[in-house]
Specification:
Blueprint: H1 11-18, H2 24-27, H3 32-41, H4 67-82, E1 88-93, E2 96-101, H5 106-110, H6 112-125, E3 129-132, H7 143-155
Parallel strand pairs: 2-3
Antiparallel strand pairs: 1-2
Helix pairs in contact: 4-6
Protein name: TIGR00268 family protein
Organism: Dictyobacter vulcani
Length: about 160
């Protein structure tokens, strides 16, 4: 946990509060930028490692989170990492894999050979359909529909 998590919907934070889990970096008022800067100063090799949220964050709110779904997400993201994509998420919509990569990497992802490799690999994992999110990788994209529904409910 860090201060950058405050402005976003993070269901895990409620569980952390309930179990009195402390977040020393957040308590120190540190965000990701400061954490990375200190890690770099300390010579830590992971200072620029891409963020890696819990795999359950790839599953829409209200959907069942089970071992099989989490394994599908893990295997799908592992495949894409092995193909050279660095910052990515595979959003799990039952039999649909919605891939988010950096916008600059979308052209490589949709090249004919790469798209065939990715589609074939994800189908072997259990996805029927493979899609690319045209907005690219962004943290909290699963929150977009959550906040939209919340605003609609508040307006009524």
């Amino acid at each position: 946990m860090n201060t950058d998590d405050d402005g976003d919907f993070r269901p895990g934070q409620r569980a952390a509060r309930e179990f009195q889990v402390r977040g020393p970096l957040k308590e120190a008022g540190m965000g990701k930028k400061e954490i990375r800067a200190i890690a770099r100063l300390l010579g830590m090799p992971v200072w620029d490692k891409p963020a890696m949220a819990c795999f359950s964050s790839r599953i829409p709110y209200g959907s069942k989170v089970d071992v099989a779904s989490l394994q599908m997400v893990y295997r799908a993201e592992k495949l894409l990492h092995e193909l050279g994509f660095k910052q990515l998420r595979v959003r799990h919509h039952d039999k649909i894999a919605r891939i988010e990569v950096e916008r600059s990497e979308i052209p490589r992802l949709v090249e004919e050979e790469m798209s065939r490799t990715v589609t074939s690999g994800l189908r072997k994992i259990g996805y029927t359909y493979v899609t690319v999110d045209l907005l690219g990788y962004r943290t909290g994209s699963m929150n977009e529909s959550f906040f939209k529904k919340k605003k609609q409910a508040e307006a009524q």
